[in-house]
Design goal:
By secondary structure, this protein is an alpha/beta fold. The protein is built from 15 helices and 18 strands.
Length: 490
């Protein structure tokens, strides 16, 4: 294998035989020469005494794509996460800090706890501190000393003991604070915006030639971070969403022509709404940002609601917060305002669509409906993580600790096809994970709810052209006639 030339390039690419491409992560030795190394303390840790193989092989990588043909190129790989035989920090010299940024998410406290305990119990690191209040806390807030005793029970609570904030990212001040406090390991927990900030912080640290490792732990309740299998907190969010859907179902079935409407999180990606719908089996219609829909006319949402009420006498609708924003903005003549993180401020689509449904059936005078609107958004964000996410957060935190101790920097950690890997920041910040509406999972949802797709011919053709690989259904088979035939409610 040979490293691609030009050390100034943003990506560290290694190529090999058979189309092998390693998107490697930076290392402290890339820009600091003659760094000493030390034996990894893990090999003397009693907890690891029964482990047959302490360390991950330096050449171990994880394939991004595992479904291939016999003649396919080997494709993109990432460096496998785990403890290395040599480390670049002596435990007594480590001064680590942890910061949480962006919105709340189940599992934040678990990640904090496991970073602290991983550094302490696996590597013997005693100096760990928390940054109070997100990125701003580096230069405007007090620090919080973190020890295993301090973090012992925090995984049982929702939120983050460190506090969080959006925006306020002044790179020079942050790196000045890191330098002034002699911090040499920085653990940053946050979503894509936070990881973009982490990438800028890393670049400034590298420009100054500082012996500081920057490790990211990706966090988003929406599961919209690409490359990794899923983000922590997602399983907990889907599980908690069931409570709201169950309540909506009870309300809907208790009244004549009852409609239970639930708004779930999902700014740009409808994963929570989709998986909660599939898990519930009580949902009649799921609406997400990736799948456009229209209200009036043949094949529209109003027609489907009327049909389902006549058929079943009740209905449950789940809508993601980012769905139909173009319809809401047009209706309310809203301007595109942004929050401190640069995200477009969303209108309350749940409240808007509930009013439109009531207005429609009131005007038609065909049917008296009873609609109940439930918005559990912040209740879901604030819960502690469930058992599945607690285990996942432990693996994420320990993988980040192993990477930082091994001298890797400018990386985020996450599972790729079931194996934890180190991913360069640009790998998760340049695109966004979205529900693919030409994929079988969305087809499973449509089959489960028996709802129409609400897509017009041009929408389906566009979706087929944008997605790769294409579905087995040929675009040639889609015509205006057979599309209408599929949309007719039977």
């Amino acid at each position: 294998m040979g490293e691609a030339p030009n050390s100034q390039q943003k990506q560290k690419i290694v190529t090999g035989d058979g189309g092998y491409v390693l998107q490697d992560v930076p290392h402290l030795s890339d820009y600091i020469s003659n760094l000493p190394t030390y034996p990894n303390p893990v090999q003397d840790n009693p907890s690891y005494s029964v482990v047959k193989q302490y360390f991950v092989d330096e050449d171990d990588t994880v394939a991004q794509k595992i479904v291939v043909h016999k003649n396919s190129p080997r494709g993109i790989h990432f460096r496998r996460a785990g403890p290395r035989q040599r480390v670049y920090f002596e435990p007594e010299d480590v001064h680590a800090c942890i910061v949480t940024c962006g919105g709340l998410c189940p599992g934040l406290n678990t990640v904090i706890r496991e970073i602290v305990c991983g550094l302490h119990y696996m590597y013997g690191v005693k100096r760990v501190m928390g940054i109070d209040g997100g990125y701003r806390g580096f230069y405007s807030k007090n620090i919080i000393p973190l020890t295993p005793k301090v973090v012992n029970d925090i995984h049982k609570r929702g939120g983050t003991i460190l506090g969080t904030s959006r925006g306020g990212h002044v790179t020079k001040k942050i790196v000045d604070s890191i330098q002034d406090r002699d911090i040499n390991q920085v653990y940053i927990i946050g979503g894509d915006g936070t990881q973009r900030g982490a990438a800028v912080i890393f670049e400034e640290i590298r420009r100054r030639g500082l012996n500081v490792s920057v490790a990211g732990i990706p966090k988003t309740i929406d599961n919209d971070i690409p490359v990794i299998d899923k983000s922590f907190g997602f399983d907990s969010a889907v599980e908690e969403a069931q409570r709201a859907i169950s309540a909506a179902h009870v309300e809907a079935t208790s009244f004549e022509n009852g409609i239970g409407l639930v708004k779930l999180m999902g700014r740009d990606s409808g994963f929570i709404a989709m998986y909660a719908t599939l898990a519930s089996r009580d949902v009649d219609c799921c609406l997400i940002p990736e799948s456009p829909f229209y209200l009036e006319g043949r094949g529209g949402l109003f027609e489907y609601i009327e049909h389902r009420l006549k058929e079943n006498g009740h209905m449950v609708i789940v809508i993601a917060e980012g769905a139909a924003q173009e319809l809401v903005s047009e209706s309310l003549r809203c301007t595109g305002k942004q929050d401190p993180s640069g995200n477009k401020l969303l209108q309350d689509v749940g409240l808007w669509i509930s009013e439109r449904i009531k207005e429609h059936f009131s005007k038609q005078k065909k049917m008296l409906i009873n609609l109940k609107y439930i918005d559990p958004t912040y209740m879901i964000r604030a819960i502690p993580s469930n058992a599945s996410d607690n285990v996942y957060c432990t693996l994420l935190a320990q993988s980040a600790v192993h990477g930082a101790m091994a001298g890797y920097t400018g990386f985020t950690v996450g599972p790729v096809n079931g194996r934890h890997a180190y991913i360069p920041f640009n790998g998760i910040t340049e695109t966004q994970n979205k529900v693919v509406i030409t994929d079988r999972m969305w087809a499973r949802l449509l089959s489960s709810t028996n709802q129409p797709s609400f897509l017009r011919t041009r929408d389906i053709i566009k979706a087929h052209k944008e997605e790769e690989p294409p579905t087995q259904l040929s675009d040639d088979s889609i015509t205006d006639d057979n599309l209408m035939e599929k949309q007719v409610l039977c």
